[in-house]
Design a protein that fits this description.
77 residues, 0% strand, Rna Polymerase Sigma Factor, Chain: A, mainly alpha, disordered N terminus
Length: 77
């Protein structure tokens, strides 16, 4: 069976590549796309009052390690 990447994944790949090149607005778009999901995951693991700050920390960490992501299509996961 062939699985084709969904358009959103391809868009994420382009955004990751742009963000790696220093495009902060591209990383901002990645944040907009994925912050809600990260927030939901965190709500299952930490007290609700801590989730917002941890979302920020997750994305700051992601930004600082973006260059080491081997498969840019895996950013969302």
């Amino acid at each position: 069976m062939t699985v084709w990447p969904v358009p959103e994944t391809r868009e994420d790949e382009a955004l990751v590549c742009a963000a790696r090149g220093g495009d902060r607005s591209a990383f901002g778009l990645l944040y907009q796309r994925h912050a809600r999901m990260v927030h939901g995951i965190l709500l299952c693991r930490v007290p609700p009052q801590e989730a917002d700050d941890l979302v920020q920390e997750v994305f700051l960490l992601a930004l600082s390690h973006l260059h080491s992501l081997r498969d840019v299509s895996r950013f969302g996961t």
